[in-house]
Structure prediction request, 473 residues.
Amino acid sequence: MFRKVLIANRGEIALRVICACKELGIRTVAVYSEADRNALHVRFADEAICIGPPRSSESYLHVPAVIAAAEIADVDAIHPGYGLLSENANFAEVCRESNIKFIGPPPEVTRMMGEKSMARQTMKKAKVPILPGSDGVLVDQNEALEWARSIGYPVILKAVAGGGGRGMRIVRTPEELPALYQAAHTEAANAFGNGDLYMEKFIERPRHIEFQVLADEHGNVLSLGERECSIQRRHQKLIEEAPSLQVTQKMRDDIGKTIRKSLVDVGYQNAGTIEFLMDEDGKLYFIEMNTRIQVEHPVTEMITGVDLVKAQLRVAAGEKLSSIIPDPIAIRGHAIECRVNAEHPEKFTPSAGKITAFNLPGGNGVRVDTAQYAEGVVPPYYDSLIAKLIVHGKDRAEAMARMERALEMFVVEGIHTTIPLHRKIFKDEEFRTGAFDTKFMERFFDREKERRANMQHIIAQSDAPPSGETPSA
Ligand code: MV4
Prediction:
Protein backbone atom coordinates (compact mmCIF):
# COMPACT_ATOMS: atom_id res chain seq x y z
CA MET A 1 0.00 0.00 0.00
CA PHE A 2 1.04 3.62 -0.52
CA ARG A 3 2.91 5.36 2.27
CA LYS A 4 1.85 8.91 1.34
CA VAL A 5 -0.74 10.34 -1.11
CA LEU A 6 -1.22 13.90 -2.40
CA ILE A 7 -4.80 15.01 -3.00
CA ALA A 8 -4.92 17.32 -6.03
CA ASN A 9 -8.33 18.76 -5.23
CA ARG A 10 -10.32 20.83 -2.74
CA GLY A 11 -13.74 20.88 -1.04
CA GLU A 12 -15.79 17.84 -0.10
CA ILE A 13 -14.00 15.44 -2.46
CA ALA A 14 -10.56 16.32 -1.06
CA LEU A 15 -11.92 15.56 2.40
CA ARG A 16 -13.56 12.35 1.14
CA VAL A 17 -10.18 11.12 -0.18
CA ILE A 18 -8.48 12.09 3.11
CA CYS A 19 -11.07 9.97 4.99
CA ALA A 20 -10.25 6.94 2.80
CA CYS A 21 -6.48 7.43 3.25
CA LYS A 22 -6.81 7.72 7.04
CA GLU A 23 -8.78 4.45 7.19
CA LEU A 24 -6.03 2.73 5.17
CA GLY A 25 -3.22 4.19 7.29
CA ILE A 26 -1.86 6.36 4.44
CA ARG A 27 -0.29 9.77 5.15
CA THR A 28 -2.02 12.63 3.31
CA VAL A 29 -0.76 15.82 1.66
CA ALA A 30 -3.22 18.59 0.84
CA VAL A 31 -2.51 21.29 -1.74
CA TYR A 32 -4.39 24.56 -1.52
CA SER A 33 -4.81 27.98 -3.10
CA GLU A 34 -4.49 31.25 -1.18
CA ALA A 35 -8.31 31.34 -0.99
CA ASP A 36 -8.38 27.96 0.83
CA ARG A 37 -5.96 28.61 3.73
CA ASN A 38 -8.74 27.90 6.25
CA ALA A 39 -10.31 25.01 4.35
CA LEU A 40 -10.95 21.69 6.10
CA HIS A 41 -8.93 19.62 3.61
CA VAL A 42 -5.91 21.68 4.75
CA ARG A 43 -6.74 21.18 8.42
CA PHE A 44 -7.29 17.41 8.26
CA ALA A 45 -4.41 16.42 5.97
CA ASP A 46 -1.11 15.46 7.63
CA GLU A 47 0.73 18.06 5.53
CA ALA A 48 -0.42 20.99 3.41
CA ILE A 49 1.32 22.98 0.69
CA CYS A 50 0.11 26.27 -0.80
CA ILE A 51 0.38 26.01 -4.60
CA GLY A 52 -0.72 29.44 -5.79
CA PRO A 53 -3.28 32.24 -6.03
CA PRO A 54 -7.07 31.71 -5.78
CA ARG A 55 -7.83 31.16 -9.47
CA SER A 56 -7.84 27.40 -10.33
CA SER A 57 -5.78 28.00 -13.47
CA GLU A 58 -2.98 29.33 -11.23
CA SER A 59 -3.29 26.70 -8.48
CA TYR A 60 -5.32 23.46 -8.64
CA LEU A 61 -4.99 23.27 -12.44
CA HIS A 62 -1.35 24.35 -12.53
CA VAL A 63 0.47 21.08 -13.32
CA PRO A 64 4.03 22.25 -12.47
CA ALA A 65 2.85 23.54 -9.05
CA VAL A 66 1.04 20.29 -8.21
CA ILE A 67 3.98 18.12 -9.33
CA ALA A 68 6.46 20.32 -7.42
CA ALA A 69 4.38 19.87 -4.25
CA ALA A 70 4.32 16.11 -4.81
CA GLU A 71 8.11 16.06 -5.23
CA ILE A 72 8.73 18.22 -2.14
CA ALA A 73 6.39 16.12 0.03
CA ASP A 74 7.85 12.93 -1.49
CA VAL A 75 4.50 11.19 -2.12
CA ASP A 76 4.00 7.81 -3.82
CA ALA A 77 0.72 8.72 -5.51
CA ILE A 78 -1.71 11.51 -6.45
CA HIS A 79 -5.49 11.25 -6.17
CA PRO A 80 -7.09 13.82 -8.53
CA GLY A 81 -10.70 13.64 -7.21
CA TYR A 82 -13.24 14.80 -9.85
CA GLY A 83 -13.09 17.83 -12.16
CA LEU A 84 -9.80 19.84 -12.20
CA LEU A 85 -6.97 17.51 -13.40
CA SER A 86 -8.89 14.23 -13.02
CA GLU A 87 -9.43 13.58 -16.75
CA ASN A 88 -6.31 15.33 -18.02
CA ALA A 89 -4.25 12.64 -19.80
CA ASN A 90 -1.24 14.96 -20.05
CA PHE A 91 -1.20 15.36 -16.27
CA ALA A 92 -1.37 11.57 -15.80
CA GLU A 93 1.55 11.31 -18.23
CA VAL A 94 3.62 13.84 -16.26
CA CYS A 95 2.88 11.84 -13.09
CA ARG A 96 4.14 8.68 -14.79
CA GLU A 97 7.33 10.44 -15.97
CA SER A 98 7.86 11.71 -12.41
CA ASN A 99 7.47 8.21 -10.94
CA ILE A 100 4.32 9.19 -9.10
CA LYS A 101 1.32 6.83 -9.35
CA PHE A 102 -1.73 8.61 -10.82
CA ILE A 103 -4.81 7.12 -9.15
CA GLY A 104 -6.93 6.53 -12.24
CA PRO A 105 -6.70 4.78 -15.59
CA PRO A 106 -3.58 4.94 -17.82
CA PRO A 107 -3.29 8.20 -19.84
CA GLU A 108 -3.81 6.35 -23.14
CA VAL A 109 -7.23 5.10 -21.98
CA THR A 110 -8.25 8.53 -20.63
CA ARG A 111 -7.25 10.15 -23.93
CA MET A 112 -9.21 7.62 -25.99
CA MET A 113 -12.37 7.92 -23.87
CA GLY A 114 -12.07 11.73 -23.94
CA GLU A 115 -12.43 11.53 -27.73
CA LYS A 116 -16.19 10.80 -27.70
CA SER A 117 -16.56 9.37 -31.20
CA MET A 118 -13.62 7.04 -30.55
CA ALA A 119 -15.19 5.90 -27.25
CA ARG A 120 -18.38 5.22 -29.23
CA GLN A 121 -16.55 3.09 -31.82
CA THR A 122 -14.69 1.21 -29.07
CA MET A 123 -17.94 0.35 -27.29
CA LYS A 124 -19.61 -0.64 -30.56
CA LYS A 125 -16.79 -3.11 -31.28
CA ALA A 126 -17.31 -4.63 -27.80
CA LYS A 127 -21.06 -5.09 -28.52
CA VAL A 128 -22.19 -2.43 -26.02
CA PRO A 129 -25.40 -0.99 -27.53
CA ILE A 130 -24.94 2.48 -29.09
CA LEU A 131 -27.41 4.82 -30.84
CA PRO A 132 -27.55 4.84 -34.64
CA GLY A 133 -25.02 7.45 -35.76
CA SER A 134 -21.92 8.35 -37.75
CA ASP A 135 -18.89 6.05 -37.81
CA GLY A 136 -16.34 8.39 -36.29
CA VAL A 137 -15.77 12.06 -37.07
CA LEU A 138 -17.79 13.88 -39.78
CA VAL A 139 -15.55 15.30 -42.52
CA ASP A 140 -18.02 18.03 -43.64
CA GLN A 141 -21.66 19.18 -43.88
CA ASN A 142 -22.33 16.93 -46.86
CA GLU A 143 -21.31 13.82 -44.95
CA ALA A 144 -23.50 15.03 -42.07
CA LEU A 145 -26.48 15.39 -44.47
CA GLU A 146 -25.90 11.86 -45.78
CA TRP A 147 -25.75 10.33 -42.29
CA ALA A 148 -28.83 12.24 -41.15
CA ARG A 149 -30.78 10.98 -44.18
CA SER A 150 -29.83 7.36 -43.43
CA ILE A 151 -30.41 7.63 -39.64
CA GLY A 152 -33.60 9.68 -39.94
CA TYR A 153 -34.36 13.05 -38.31
CA PRO A 154 -34.15 14.33 -35.61
CA VAL A 155 -30.41 13.88 -35.11
CA ILE A 156 -27.92 15.50 -32.73
CA LEU A 157 -24.48 16.89 -33.61
CA LYS A 158 -21.94 16.51 -30.80
CA ALA A 159 -18.36 17.71 -30.36
CA VAL A 160 -15.88 14.81 -30.16
CA ALA A 161 -13.98 16.78 -27.50
CA GLY A 162 -17.24 17.78 -25.77
CA GLY A 163 -19.16 16.70 -22.73
CA GLY A 164 -21.38 18.60 -20.37
CA GLY A 165 -23.62 19.72 -23.21
CA ARG A 166 -21.38 22.23 -24.99
CA GLY A 167 -20.98 22.05 -28.76
CA MET A 168 -24.26 20.13 -29.21
CA ARG A 169 -27.01 20.95 -31.74
CA ILE A 170 -30.33 19.16 -32.36
CA VAL A 171 -31.16 19.01 -36.08
CA ARG A 172 -34.79 18.40 -37.11
CA THR A 173 -34.73 19.06 -40.89
CA PRO A 174 -32.09 18.93 -43.66
CA GLU A 175 -32.70 22.64 -44.38
CA GLU A 176 -31.44 23.73 -40.95
CA LEU A 177 -28.47 21.34 -40.86
CA PRO A 178 -25.79 23.52 -42.55
CA ALA A 179 -26.21 26.48 -40.16
CA LEU A 180 -26.36 24.21 -37.07
CA TYR A 181 -23.32 22.24 -38.24
CA GLN A 182 -21.36 25.49 -38.61
CA ALA A 183 -22.51 26.76 -35.19
CA ALA A 184 -21.58 23.51 -33.40
CA HIS A 185 -18.22 23.39 -35.18
CA THR A 186 -17.33 26.98 -34.22
CA GLU A 187 -18.53 26.56 -30.62
CA ALA A 188 -16.51 23.34 -30.20
CA ALA A 189 -13.38 24.85 -31.79
CA ASN A 190 -13.57 27.83 -29.41
CA ALA A 191 -14.43 25.82 -26.28
CA PHE A 192 -12.17 22.78 -26.75
CA GLY A 193 -9.64 23.79 -29.42
CA ASN A 194 -11.11 20.96 -31.53
CA GLY A 195 -14.08 21.57 -33.84
CA ASP A 196 -14.59 17.93 -34.87
CA LEU A 197 -18.20 16.68 -34.73
CA TYR A 198 -20.05 13.35 -34.83
CA MET A 199 -23.73 12.51 -35.12
CA GLU A 200 -26.31 10.41 -33.28
CA LYS A 201 -30.02 9.75 -33.54
CA PHE A 202 -31.67 12.25 -31.15
CA ILE A 203 -33.75 10.89 -28.25
CA GLU A 204 -36.45 13.40 -27.29
CA ARG A 205 -37.00 12.53 -23.63
CA PRO A 206 -34.10 10.38 -22.44
CA ARG A 207 -33.39 9.22 -18.94
CA HIS A 208 -29.76 9.52 -17.88
CA ILE A 209 -28.57 6.25 -16.34
CA GLU A 210 -24.92 5.49 -15.59
CA PHE A 211 -23.07 2.35 -14.50
CA GLN A 212 -20.25 2.38 -11.93
CA VAL A 213 -17.27 0.20 -12.77
CA LEU A 214 -14.08 -0.70 -10.97
CA ALA A 215 -11.02 -2.36 -12.53
CA ASP A 216 -7.81 -3.67 -11.01
CA GLU A 217 -4.40 -3.84 -12.70
CA HIS A 218 -4.66 -7.61 -13.31
CA GLY A 219 -7.35 -7.54 -16.01
CA ASN A 220 -10.38 -7.82 -13.71
CA VAL A 221 -13.39 -5.51 -14.08
CA LEU A 222 -16.53 -5.33 -11.94
CA SER A 223 -19.83 -3.49 -12.49
CA LEU A 224 -21.41 -2.01 -9.34
CA GLY A 225 -24.81 -1.32 -10.85
CA GLU A 226 -26.41 1.88 -12.01
CA ARG A 227 -27.38 5.35 -10.85
CA GLU A 228 -30.39 7.33 -12.09
CA CYS A 229 -29.23 10.92 -12.82
CA SER A 230 -32.08 12.47 -14.84
CA ILE A 231 -32.90 15.22 -12.31
CA GLN A 232 -30.63 17.94 -13.69
CA ARG A 233 -30.77 21.50 -14.92
CA ARG A 234 -28.50 22.91 -17.60
CA HIS A 235 -26.39 19.74 -17.45
CA GLN A 236 -25.86 20.19 -13.68
CA LYS A 237 -27.21 17.20 -11.77
CA LEU A 238 -29.35 18.04 -8.73
CA ILE A 239 -30.47 14.63 -7.44
CA GLU A 240 -29.11 11.14 -8.08
CA GLU A 241 -30.38 7.80 -6.86
CA ALA A 242 -29.54 4.11 -6.95
CA PRO A 243 -30.80 1.69 -8.05
CA SER A 244 -32.89 2.97 -10.99
CA LEU A 245 -36.55 1.91 -10.88
CA GLN A 246 -36.38 1.47 -14.68
CA VAL A 247 -33.54 -1.08 -14.67
CA THR A 248 -34.46 -4.73 -14.05
CA GLN A 249 -32.00 -7.24 -12.58
CA LYS A 250 -31.77 -8.87 -16.01
CA MET A 251 -30.85 -5.53 -17.68
CA ARG A 252 -28.32 -4.86 -14.89
CA ASP A 253 -26.72 -8.28 -15.40
CA ASP A 254 -26.71 -8.01 -19.22
CA ILE A 255 -25.24 -4.48 -19.34
CA GLY A 256 -22.84 -5.37 -16.52
CA LYS A 257 -21.54 -8.35 -18.49
CA THR A 258 -20.97 -6.44 -21.75
CA ILE A 259 -19.31 -3.42 -20.12
CA ARG A 260 -17.01 -5.70 -18.11
CA LYS A 261 -15.86 -7.37 -21.30
CA SER A 262 -15.45 -4.05 -23.14
CA LEU A 263 -13.29 -2.57 -20.37
CA VAL A 264 -11.10 -5.65 -20.13
CA ASP A 265 -10.49 -5.20 -23.89
CA VAL A 266 -9.41 -1.53 -23.52
CA GLY A 267 -7.17 -2.26 -20.52
CA TYR A 268 -9.22 -0.11 -18.17
CA GLN A 269 -7.94 0.48 -14.62
CA ASN A 270 -9.41 2.04 -11.47
CA ALA A 271 -12.93 3.58 -11.07
CA GLY A 272 -15.01 4.75 -14.00
CA THR A 273 -18.56 5.54 -15.05
CA ILE A 274 -20.29 4.49 -18.25
CA GLU A 275 -23.12 6.85 -19.22
CA PHE A 276 -26.21 5.63 -21.02
CA LEU A 277 -29.36 7.22 -22.34
CA MET A 278 -32.57 5.25 -21.89
CA ASP A 279 -35.16 5.82 -24.62
CA GLU A 280 -38.96 5.84 -24.27
CA ASP A 281 -39.00 2.06 -24.80
CA GLY A 282 -36.64 1.45 -21.87
CA LYS A 283 -33.64 0.54 -24.04
CA LEU A 284 -30.16 1.64 -22.93
CA TYR A 285 -27.56 3.15 -25.27
CA PHE A 286 -23.94 4.04 -24.42
CA ILE A 287 -23.13 7.76 -24.87
CA GLU A 288 -19.83 8.43 -23.07
CA MET A 289 -17.44 7.27 -20.36
CA ASN A 290 -16.06 9.27 -17.43
CA THR A 291 -12.63 8.09 -16.33
CA ARG A 292 -12.77 9.40 -12.73
CA ILE A 293 -14.60 9.02 -9.41
CA GLN A 294 -17.87 10.96 -9.74
CA VAL A 295 -19.67 13.43 -7.46
CA GLU A 296 -22.57 10.97 -7.06
CA HIS A 297 -20.46 7.92 -6.12
CA PRO A 298 -21.92 7.79 -2.55
CA VAL A 299 -25.32 6.45 -3.68
CA THR A 300 -23.53 3.41 -5.10
CA GLU A 301 -21.50 3.06 -1.89
CA MET A 302 -24.68 3.09 0.21
CA ILE A 303 -26.42 0.28 -1.71
CA THR A 304 -23.35 -1.92 -2.29
CA GLY A 305 -21.43 -1.37 0.96
CA VAL A 306 -18.27 -0.80 -1.10
CA ASP A 307 -16.04 2.18 -0.22
CA LEU A 308 -15.20 3.25 -3.77
CA VAL A 309 -12.38 5.65 -2.84
CA LYS A 310 -10.63 3.07 -0.66
CA ALA A 311 -11.09 0.59 -3.53
CA GLN A 312 -9.47 3.14 -5.90
CA LEU A 313 -6.44 3.40 -3.60
CA ARG A 314 -6.17 -0.37 -3.17
CA VAL A 315 -6.38 -1.29 -6.87
CA ALA A 316 -3.92 1.54 -7.70
CA ALA A 317 -1.52 -0.03 -5.19
CA GLY A 318 -1.78 -3.32 -7.11
CA GLU A 319 -4.36 -5.25 -5.07
CA LYS A 320 -6.75 -7.60 -6.85
CA LEU A 321 -10.49 -6.85 -6.97
CA SER A 322 -11.16 -10.34 -5.61
CA SER A 323 -9.48 -9.35 -2.32
CA ILE A 324 -11.55 -6.13 -2.08
CA ILE A 325 -15.10 -6.80 -3.27
CA PRO A 326 -17.50 -9.74 -3.38
CA ASP A 327 -18.49 -10.86 -6.89
CA PRO A 328 -21.32 -10.64 -7.75
CA ILE A 329 -22.19 -7.57 -5.73
CA ALA A 330 -25.48 -7.59 -3.82
CA ILE A 331 -27.66 -4.46 -3.93
CA ARG A 332 -29.33 -3.53 -0.66
CA GLY A 333 -32.10 -0.91 -0.33
CA HIS A 334 -32.25 2.47 -2.01
CA ALA A 335 -30.07 5.59 -1.79
CA ILE A 336 -30.70 9.19 -2.86
CA GLU A 337 -28.31 12.15 -2.99
CA CYS A 338 -29.15 15.86 -3.07
CA ARG A 339 -26.40 18.17 -4.29
CA VAL A 340 -26.42 21.25 -2.08
CA ASN A 341 -25.03 24.13 -4.13
CA ALA A 342 -24.21 27.64 -2.96
CA GLU A 343 -26.61 29.13 -5.49
CA HIS A 344 -29.81 31.07 -5.67
CA PRO A 345 -32.43 28.24 -5.76
CA GLU A 346 -34.31 29.66 -8.77
CA LYS A 347 -31.88 31.90 -10.62
CA PHE A 348 -29.04 29.39 -10.11
CA THR A 349 -26.54 32.25 -9.82
CA PRO A 350 -23.51 31.53 -7.57
CA SER A 351 -23.79 32.69 -3.96
CA ALA A 352 -20.38 33.08 -2.34
CA GLY A 353 -19.78 34.49 1.16
CA LYS A 354 -19.61 33.68 4.82
CA ILE A 355 -21.78 30.98 6.36
CA THR A 356 -23.34 32.45 9.52
CA ALA A 357 -25.30 29.41 10.75
CA PHE A 358 -24.80 25.73 9.90
CA ASN A 359 -26.58 22.62 11.14
CA LEU A 360 -26.01 19.23 9.55
CA PRO A 361 -28.71 16.56 9.70
CA GLY A 362 -27.74 13.13 11.01
CA GLY A 363 -29.33 10.03 12.45
CA ASN A 364 -30.13 6.65 10.98
CA GLY A 365 -29.38 6.30 7.27
CA VAL A 366 -28.13 9.87 6.76
CA ARG A 367 -24.70 10.82 5.41
CA VAL A 368 -23.37 14.28 4.62
CA ASP A 369 -20.19 14.75 2.56
CA THR A 370 -19.04 18.34 3.00
CA ALA A 371 -16.00 20.50 3.74
CA GLN A 372 -18.06 23.44 4.98
CA TYR A 373 -18.48 24.60 8.57
CA ALA A 374 -20.12 27.39 10.59
CA GLU A 375 -18.31 30.74 10.13
CA GLY A 376 -16.59 29.24 7.06
CA VAL A 377 -16.38 31.04 3.74
CA VAL A 378 -17.52 29.89 0.30
CA PRO A 379 -15.00 31.46 -2.10
CA PRO A 380 -16.30 32.70 -5.47
CA TYR A 381 -13.59 30.98 -7.54
CA TYR A 382 -14.69 27.36 -7.60
CA ASP A 383 -17.53 24.90 -8.15
CA SER A 384 -20.64 25.84 -6.16
CA LEU A 385 -21.14 22.37 -4.59
CA ILE A 386 -20.86 22.80 -0.79
CA ALA A 387 -22.41 19.56 0.48
CA LYS A 388 -23.92 16.28 -0.59
CA LEU A 389 -26.81 14.99 1.48
CA ILE A 390 -27.13 11.25 1.03
CA VAL A 391 -29.77 8.98 2.55
CA HIS A 392 -30.19 5.22 2.53
CA GLY A 393 -33.41 3.31 3.22
CA LYS A 394 -34.85 -0.16 2.81
CA ASP A 395 -36.73 1.07 -0.27
CA ARG A 396 -37.34 4.30 -2.21
CA ALA A 397 -40.28 5.34 0.00
CA GLU A 398 -38.17 5.11 3.16
CA ALA A 399 -35.28 6.93 1.49
CA MET A 400 -37.62 9.75 0.40
CA ALA A 401 -39.11 10.16 3.90
CA ARG A 402 -35.59 10.20 5.34
CA MET A 403 -34.47 12.83 2.82
CA GLU A 404 -37.45 15.06 3.59
CA ARG A 405 -36.75 15.10 7.33
CA ALA A 406 -32.99 15.54 6.72
CA LEU A 407 -33.64 18.51 4.41
CA GLU A 408 -35.83 20.03 7.13
CA MET A 409 -32.94 19.77 9.62
CA PHE A 410 -30.25 21.05 7.23
CA VAL A 411 -29.66 24.72 8.09
CA VAL A 412 -27.34 26.99 6.10
CA GLU A 413 -27.54 30.75 6.67
CA GLY A 414 -25.54 33.63 5.25
CA ILE A 415 -25.55 32.38 1.66
CA HIS A 416 -28.23 31.06 -0.71
CA THR A 417 -28.37 27.30 -1.27
CA THR A 418 -30.45 24.84 -3.28
CA ILE A 419 -31.90 23.30 -0.05
CA PRO A 420 -35.29 25.06 -0.45
CA LEU A 421 -35.49 23.81 -4.04
CA HIS A 422 -34.76 20.23 -2.93
CA ARG A 423 -37.54 20.43 -0.32
CA LYS A 424 -40.00 21.40 -3.08
CA ILE A 425 -38.82 18.69 -5.48
CA PHE A 426 -39.41 16.03 -2.80
CA LYS A 427 -43.04 17.17 -2.55
CA ASP A 428 -43.54 16.98 -6.32
CA GLU A 429 -45.90 14.20 -7.46
CA GLU A 430 -43.95 13.37 -10.63
CA PHE A 431 -40.69 13.10 -8.69
CA ARG A 432 -42.34 10.86 -6.11
CA THR A 433 -43.52 8.36 -8.73
CA GLY A 434 -39.93 7.90 -9.94
CA ALA A 435 -41.14 7.97 -13.56
CA PHE A 436 -39.25 11.02 -14.87
CA ASP A 437 -36.74 11.90 -17.60
CA THR A 438 -34.11 14.61 -18.23
CA LYS A 439 -36.85 17.19 -18.99
CA PHE A 440 -38.21 16.87 -15.41
CA MET A 441 -36.86 20.20 -14.10
CA GLU A 442 -38.44 22.16 -16.98
CA ARG A 443 -41.85 20.67 -16.18
CA PHE A 444 -41.23 21.19 -12.45
CA PHE A 445 -40.52 24.91 -12.90
CA ASP A 446 -43.63 25.26 -15.11
CA ARG A 447 -45.69 23.71 -12.31
CA GLU A 448 -43.99 25.99 -9.76
CA LYS A 449 -44.96 29.04 -11.82
CA GLU A 450 -48.53 27.81 -11.94
CA ARG A 451 -48.58 27.15 -8.17
CA ARG A 452 -47.24 30.67 -7.60
CA ALA A 453 -49.86 32.21 -9.89
CA ASN A 454 -52.60 30.36 -7.96
CA MET A 455 -51.10 31.58 -4.69
CA GLN A 456 -51.10 35.19 -5.98
CA HIS A 457 -54.74 34.71 -6.93
CA ILE A 458 -55.62 33.55 -3.40
CA ILE A 459 -53.64 36.41 -1.83
CA ALA A 460 -55.39 38.91 -4.10
CA GLN A 461 -58.77 37.48 -3.02
CA SER A 462 -57.94 37.62 0.68
CA ASP A 463 -56.63 41.20 0.31
CA ALA A 464 -59.88 42.26 -1.31
CA PRO A 465 -62.26 44.06 1.02
CA PRO A 466 -64.97 41.87 2.51
CA SER A 467 -67.99 41.67 0.21
CA GLY A 468 -70.61 44.29 0.86
CA GLU A 469 -68.06 46.91 1.72
CA THR A 470 -66.62 49.18 -0.91
CA PRO A 471 -63.72 51.40 0.02
CA SER A 472 -64.81 55.00 -0.31
CA ALA A 473 -62.90 57.16 -2.71
C1 MV4 B 1 -28.20 13.16 -26.19
C2 MV4 B 1 -29.55 13.52 -25.98
C3 MV4 B 1 -30.50 12.97 -26.85
N1 MV4 B 1 -30.12 12.17 -27.85
N2 MV4 B 1 -27.88 12.34 -27.21
C4 MV4 B 1 -26.31 16.10 -22.94
C5 MV4 B 1 -24.97 16.07 -22.28
C6 MV4 B 1 -24.20 15.00 -22.96
N3 MV4 B 1 -23.39 14.28 -22.04
C7 MV4 B 1 -25.22 14.13 -23.61
N4 MV4 B 1 -26.44 14.88 -23.65
C8 MV4 B 1 -27.50 14.46 -24.38
N5 MV4 B 1 -27.22 13.62 -25.40
C9 MV4 B 1 -28.82 11.87 -28.01
N6 MV4 B 1 -28.47 11.07 -29.02
C10 MV4 B 1 -29.85 14.35 -24.91
C11 MV4 B 1 -28.83 14.83 -24.10
C12 MV4 B 1 -29.23 15.65 -22.99
C13 MV4 B 1 -29.06 15.20 -21.68
C14 MV4 B 1 -28.46 13.98 -21.39
C15 MV4 B 1 -28.30 13.55 -20.10
C16 MV4 B 1 -28.74 14.34 -19.05
C17 MV4 B 1 -29.33 15.55 -19.30
C18 MV4 B 1 -29.50 16.00 -20.61
C19 MV4 B 1 -30.10 17.22 -20.86
C20 MV4 B 1 -30.26 17.67 -22.14
C21 MV4 B 1 -29.81 16.88 -23.21
